[in-house]
Design goal:
The chain is α+β, with helices and mostly antiparallel strands. 20% of the residues lie in helices and 40% in strands. It is built from 3 helices and 10 strands. It has helices at 14-19, 31-45, 62-69; strands spanning 2-5, 23-26, 49-55, 73-74, 79-93, 99-105, 108-112, 118-122, 128-134, 143-144. The strands form 2 sheets. Strands 1, 2, 3, 5, 6, 7, 8 and 9 form an 8-stranded antiparallel β-sheet that branches. Strands 4-10 form a two-stranded antiparallel sheet. β5 (79-93) and β6 (99-105) form a beta hairpin. The structure holds fe (ii) ion (FE2). Residues 69, 73, 75, 79, 118, 120, 142 line the site of fe (ii) ion.
């Protein structure tokens, strides 16, 4: 994981992410190691469903899918992602309306808080495989920023 402010390029410490309401933790990617961590998160935050999503460069509709995550948007529930493979880039709006970037890769667990504007894109490798947790399946509906 690498986190930094987009305007100053200053690196963000994990405590700064916490201050911004973003949860981050590095977790081993074997199911025996990560499932207890996810189970704990589920019980403490009320996440009830879990699935795995994968985006790969050979998907014919990849651009269409990515176009949904790319514009700035928010959700009415947390966006929980645990990266099992590949990489991705979250740009998240701070409480004071700046933007910071969190680059995630294998073993990164991130929670973007509900009602917080953000955008997501793949890296040039065009691949990510991650576990998602939801409080409600309707929660992943994006609400785009005007
Ligand atoms: Fe999102």
């Amino acid at each position: 994981m690498k986190a930094y402010w987009l305007d100053t390029k200053a690196t963000m410490a994990n405590t700064e992410l916490t201050d911004e309401g973003v949860f981050y933790r590095a977790v081993p990617t074997t199911p025996e190691a990560y499932q207890p961590v996810l189970d704990q998160l589920k019980s403490s935050h009320g996440y009830i469903t879990q699935d795995i999503v994968e985006l790969t460069s050979d998907m014919p509709n990849l651009d269409q899918i990515c176009a949904k995550f790319d514009p700035e948007h928010l959700h009415t529930e947390d966006e929980v992602r645990f990266v099992l493979g590949g990489a991705g880039i979250f740009d998240i709006r701070s409480r004071d309306d700046r933007m910071f970037r969190v680059e995630v890769e294998t073993g990164d667990l991130i929670v973007v808080p509900k009602n917080r504007n953000h955008r997501f894109e793949l890296t040039s490798a065009k691949h990510i495989r991650c576990v998602r947790l939801f409080q409600d399946m309707s929660g992943w509906v994006p609400h785009y920023r005007e």
